Amino acid sequence: MASRMELLLPWCRLRFPVSGTSQTRRAPGRPRLSQVRLSSTKAAAQRVPGREEADSKVGTRKKTFTEVQAERLEQAQRTVLINCPAKISEKKFLTYLSHHGKINSHYFYESYGTYAVVEFSEKDSIASLQDVTRTPGIEEECAVPFKSRLFTLTLKNPSTQAANQAPVHCHKQSTIVVNDLVQKLCSADSVSNQLYTLMDEYQLTEENTKLRFLACSLIQDIACAYFPECTVKPFGSSVNTFGKLGCDLDMFLDLDKIGRSPTRAKTGPFYMEYQMKRVPSERIASQRILSMIGDCIDNFGPGCVGVQKILNARCPLVRFSHQPAGFQCDLTTNNRVAMRSSELLYIYGSLDSRVRALVFSVRCWARVHGITSTIPGPWITNFSLTMMALFFLQKRTPPIIPTLDQLKDLADAEDKHIIEGHDCTFASNLNKIKPTENTETLDVLLSDFFEYFGNFAFNKNSINIRKGKEQNKPEPSPLYIQNPFERALNISKNVNESQLDRFVALARECAWILQQEDTGHSSLSNSQPWGLAALLLPSVASHCIKGKKRKRGPASERIKSLLDSLKINNANSLVNNGGKRTFSNQTQ
Ligand code: GTP
Ligand code: MG
């Protein structure tokens, strides 16, 4: 989890008028566009329905976040992770493991070697496998005798067994590089489809999601040594529908079941209570628990390296790298509000396909231009950027997503959540939320997103997804985004004036580029990046001159210079592929 810095700087901003919000946005006669523009919703409907979408329904009812989480956590407990040779007979491997029970699913991936994720149908199969697994004989070092669900499988006769054996098929665990992405985007037939292409390339795959739950479950095995009733759950972008391949894995050590008291016996003359160690505050309890679990992960956790205890952060955490899974993990406890934020984002991301497509694209755009960073600092975070995109979608006419207050009005009794005095109530049942009547295309939404935030009165207004309305800023941070649950807090308090300035300048530049394309002022040839692809070119940033409206040269000259910074090896193949959409099906 990104740490939060506090910087208070006065800030004011000029308005920048950008005209034209029509739905017909591209120069007539551009051959790469389809003649019939699909609306985003139609385009979405044409996509191959993913397993994720199919799995998230019970009959016609969509599952709740809690139901999906519980299922995946249970599935993870029946799963093992096996380091194996790349050249192995998959059939023999599965036959060998089947001796311990029925296998529901399996897949291979690469991370410091080849790994197999194998899900058994029964948990007992794991005990059976552990019974026949030996501890490693290491000559010069000593192995810590902790029996986990992380195994190594070797061949008895490598030279004969691996000969003539093709390497197993590995599922991808990372995104393609930006240059390749730009090329792919250029072969889409509309900006809307560019956004969906980007999302298909970047989103977490079903396999990667399973691996995230498995990594949590392996950490839970360690924490269970002290707290047998605990659970370790993923939160943040791993589960909120906005996760990108390679994003960090935020883990929540949930000790709530232990703290929950059974109803007091009504009969009998006595009360029985546990004797427990007392500490001055919940924060200190969290720090001590995390410190100790951090030591266990460091000392006994196979594959866990680089353990850092960051206990003085606003939200204390243990950071480590789970090498076999390939994730950087942030383990926190006593963080129920963040869990609730993840569920809220999950709901927004599940309501309309345009929400995720827009958020993925904006996040990717921000990352490419250094608006966001993996290093903590005065930058806008992905969480803040997501809030900005959601706010923008609430402000459309008609709105594409409801406000948090409207979701609260739809809540049932079981949706009521008061956490540390904060009202975190909202409807968790997706079926209760009426679909929007807004039919705007993503072409329009992307361009208007940049126009909207290029003009936003950041100097006086705050962003508030609870109300879906700008409000006066209660304090002079350059960027004020109200925390949806802890309402007195600004989630973007860390952002300084110059970072906000960069964001606004880039947003204006991108609004301008998209509008030039719409109105036909751009004289690009077909081989040049266009639409979203053009916005991802590194030289977009170099055209933003801080604080000034710059004089613009002819679009063709500007784009030519953008192109100089990007090596496009395969421009002809893009022109010649007939403008087909190229969706990757490997994820779902
Ligand atoms: P990436 O990791 O960048 O892909 O996105 P993320 O949404 O997972 O963000 P991050 O890992 O930084 O934080 C994990 C979760 O913690 C978020 O999804 C939020 O629920 C919560 N969180 C992060 N930053 C803040 C903040 O400033 N305030 C509050 N209240 N919660 C935050
Ligand atoms: Mg995260």
TrEMBL record:
<dbReference type="GO" id="GO:0005739">
    <property type="term" value="C:mitochondrion"/>
</dbReference>
<dbReference type="GO" id="GO:0005654">
    <property type="term" value="C:nucleoplasm"/>
</dbReference>
<keyword id="KW-0460">Magnesium</keyword>
<dbReference type="Pfam" id="PF17797">
    <property type="entry name" value="RL"/>
</dbReference>
<protein>
    <submittedName>
        <fullName>Mitochondrial poly(A) polymerase</fullName>
    </submittedName>
</protein>
<dbReference type="GO" id="GO:0097222">
    <property type="term" value="P:mitochondrial mRNA polyadenylation"/>
</dbReference>
<feature type="domain" description="PAP-associated">
    <location>
        <begin position="444"/>
        <end position="487"/>
    </location>
</feature>
<dbReference type="GO" id="GO:0002134">
    <property type="term" value="F:UTP binding"/>
</dbReference>
<dbReference type="GO" id="GO:0042803">
    <property type="term" value="F:protein homodimerization activity"/>
</dbReference>
<dbReference type="GO" id="GO:0071044">
    <property type="term" value="P:histone mRNA catabolic process"/>
</dbReference>
<dbReference type="GO" id="GO:0000287">
    <property type="term" value="F:magnesium ion binding"/>
</dbReference>
<dbReference type="InterPro" id="IPR043519">
    <property type="entry name" value="NT_sf"/>
</dbReference>
<keyword id="KW-0479">Metal-binding</keyword>
<dbReference type="GO" id="GO:1990817">
    <property type="term" value="F:poly(A) RNA polymerase activity"/>
</dbReference>
<feature type="domain" description="Poly(A) RNA polymerase mitochondrial-like central palm">
    <location>
        <begin position="192"/>
        <end position="349"/>
    </location>
</feature>
<feature type="region of interest" description="Disordered">
    <location>
        <begin position="21"/>
        <end position="60"/>
    </location>
</feature>
<dbReference type="InterPro" id="IPR041252">
    <property type="entry name" value="RL"/>
</dbReference>
<dbReference type="InterPro" id="IPR002058">
    <property type="entry name" value="PAP_assoc"/>
</dbReference>
<dbReference type="GO" id="GO:0030145">
    <property type="term" value="F:manganese ion binding"/>
</dbReference>
<feature type="domain" description="RL">
    <location>
        <begin position="64"/>
        <end position="133"/>
    </location>
</feature>
<dbReference type="InterPro" id="IPR054708">
    <property type="entry name" value="MTPAP-like_central"/>
</dbReference>
<dbReference type="GO" id="GO:0000965">
    <property type="term" value="P:mitochondrial RNA 3'-end processing"/>
</dbReference>
<feature type="compositionally biased region" description="Basic and acidic residues">
    <location>
        <begin position="49"/>
        <end position="58"/>
    </location>
</feature>
<dbReference type="GO" id="GO:0005524">
    <property type="term" value="F:ATP binding"/>
</dbReference>
<dbReference type="Pfam" id="PF22600">
    <property type="entry name" value="MTPAP-like_central"/>
</dbReference>
<keyword id="KW-0808">Transferase</keyword>
<dbReference type="Pfam" id="PF03828">
    <property type="entry name" value="PAP_assoc"/>
</dbReference>
